[in-house]
């Protein structure tokens, strides 16, 4: 009975660990083929689902994410046997009888156990240390007292008054709407009212909250961390700003699956390199003469730029360019 080379002698490798240059046995009885490129295909929800592997000879193989595939060195299957002389043939026939018994014993023992390679170690958690967290001061009183103290300096400001009155009734850190009100209040204090000290005090009520897997709640915490990093950078407190930036990036390294971690890192870097800065929306509002809509879109652009700056910029926008653009947007929204 003829067996496929993949069933005769191979080792398995997880699909997420495949790299160009590896040799994989395609379905069928053919030899191992060298991989030229690997393309990750997402499902309709944006999650990596399939690998499209292109071989050097142009053939393609689709492999499900998370599966294991047989791989080899790709050399033995392409080698051609050298001509055998009569003398060597005779010596081989003499040794054939002695090795036959050994071969029968190995066959009775069964095939060797194939142990898949261990996946790569997931990235380590890179959150701030206890000493670094100590740079964030404790709130002066209860969270509600911090909010009331911030609003007391800006009487007559309707936006701040509405938010502070709602928050003063009780701050529930499990409520997404409550966290959103806190981040809105911090932004209004810093950007509109030019009160960075009280804005930072309010934002610190958010900044110490850990990532619990809820992306809606984390979006508000993320806004507070990016704003706090900006305030501290502008005030010359680089060490404290670095703590906020570490807290902002900490959830990125908590994925335990190494393949998903690599995919998430690739998607995250793409979003940093190609951020949505609301250019079309702003230009449309300018063309329509809608200054209020333009200001709201510029607010969102300012948040996106602060988020990029807290990440240290990207491959397309450096920190100096970010600082310049943030300054321009601040002037526009404060005008």
What is this structure's SSE topology?
Blueprint: H1 5-8, E1 11-14, E2 23-24, E3 33-42, E4 48-55, E5 60-64, E6 68-72, H2 86-109, H3 130-133, H4 143-152, H5 158-168, H6 176-192, H7 196-207, H8 215-234, H9 238-249, H10 258-273, H11 279-288, H12 291-310, H13 319-334
Antiparallel strand pairs: 1-6, 2-3, 2-6, 3-4, 4-5
Largest sheet: 6 strands, antiparallel
**What do the pLDDT scores average to?**
82
| Structural shape | elongated
Beta strand count: 6
Task: Give the helix level as a range of percent.
Answer: 40-55%
Helix/sheet category: alpha+beta
Report the radius of gyration as a whole number of Å: 30 Å
By oligomeric state, this entry counts as single chain
Order of helices and strands: HEEEEEEHHHHHHHHHHHH
Span of the ends, CA to CA = 83 Å
So how many helices?
13
Description:
The chain has 335 residues and is α+β, with helices and mostly antiparallel strands. The protein has 2 domains: 5-95, Roll (SH3 type barrels); 130-334, no CATH class. 53% of the residues lie in helices and 10% in strands. The protein has 13 helices and 6 strands. It has helices at 5-8, 86-109, 130-133, 143-152, 158-168, 176-192, 196-207, 215-234, 238-249, 258-273, 279-288, 291-310, 319-334; strands at residues 11-14, 23-24, 33-42, 48-55, 60-64, 68-72. A 6-stranded antiparallel β-sheet has the order 1-6-2-3-4-5, with no helix packed on it. The protein starts with a helix and ends with a helix.
